[in-house]
């Protein structure tokens, strides 16, 4: 059990900030808890009275923890912000917005609770130090995924635009408040009665989309254009992550590696305990591309597996050259297939003060950009 208290799941971003004496983008150190990165940046946008598109970040941080990261705001003020769950501190200027390329990795300090014994975790620590763990995208990346209706991006690619709009406007996630969930259920109940749905709309995006549909019920593509580009990018990234995870899953199975399974939001997470030397060298040198119309595969095996996945979904590589929502596109980047934590250390072991009869352990470690600390915890608690 993790994240019992926010301060027991700490994440601090390591970034190589190219600060300058004069620049158009102010850099801030953002510390938060109980908020997603997107939610925190919306608050910054509102408080600083700038468009959300002027706020940039390099990576998304977990909602359920105490996290620190860097953001930039175009023409941002010298002042900071502070509230119960958010602190924003100015640190300098840059002549460009922050992006993933500036992020080097993250440092974690995590407390695991309610452990009957520490033996399994301590053994797994030694195994992970030798063999690392699969670098899957974790469940946090798939909060927008609707298990019943599927991925927004897949519907865009396959062209059932009505389905894409339905996913965007009616999908319900755990992070949504009660009123939003009720409104989304009402949208679904009155689907295609656009005037009625427009009456129910609350957010600016909902109002624009539904007004467009009320005016032109058959022009779905025009309505889709009112989804903010940053949200489209987030939804596309979730689908890219799903396809990448599926590629890694199938690759591990094809190599015949003994694997243990943990159920995830969009599919199983597969873990090795040990690796033979050939598999270790292969996986730790391997980088798999995320989905786009142009991808650089490391070998024919991974290319063939990926094409097989697309064929099953009724897609081709050219499908990612979508003509819908042109402000956002699918771009491929290589992601390491395996992750190896740096400086993985036990900070403390003790009796669990919250759960009598159990033990707790506090760990610290570093991970490269884009790797999930929660994925390491899954591996350690197998």
Summarize the topology:
Layout: E1 9-15, E2 25-32, H1 37-48, E3 55-57, E4 66-74, E5 81-82, E6 86-94, E7 103-115, H2 119-131, E8 133-134, H3 152-158, H4 161-170, H5 178-189, H6 194-200, H7 204-215, H8 220-224, H9 229-254, E9 260-263, E10 268-271, H10 277-285, E11 287-289, H11 300-312, E12 334-336, E13 338-339, E14 342-351, E15 359-368, H12 373-380
Parallel strand pairs: 1-4
Antiparallel strand pairs: 1-7, 2-4, 2-6, 3-4, 5-6, 7-15, 8-13, 9-10, 11-12, 14-15
Notable features of this structure?
382 residues, nine-stranded mixed β-sheet, globular
Radius of gyration: 22 Å
Please summarize the sheet with the most strands: 9 strands, mixed
- Mean pLDDT comes to 94
Ranges where pLDDT stays below 50 over 5 or more residues in a row are: none
The total strand number stands at 15
| Helix/strand order | EEHEEEEEHEHHHHHHHEEHEHEEEEH
**Can you count the helices?**
12
Name the overall outline. globular
Give the % helix. 25-40%
Beta-strand percentage range: 15-25%
Q: Give the end-to-end Cα distance, rounded to a whole number of Å.
A: 12 Å
Structural class: alpha+beta
Structural notes for this entry:
This protein has 382 residues and is α+β, with helices and mostly antiparallel strands. The chain contains twelve helices and 15 strands. The strands form four sheets. Strands 1, 2, 3, 4, 5, 6, 7, 14 and 15 form a nine-stranded mixed sheet that branches. A hairpin with a 7-residue loop joins strand 14 and strand 15. Helix 3 runs antiparallel to helix 4, helix 6 packs antiparallel against helix 7 and helix 9 crosses helix 11. The radius of gyration is 22 Å and the shape is globular. The model has no long low-confidence stretch (mean pLDDT 94).
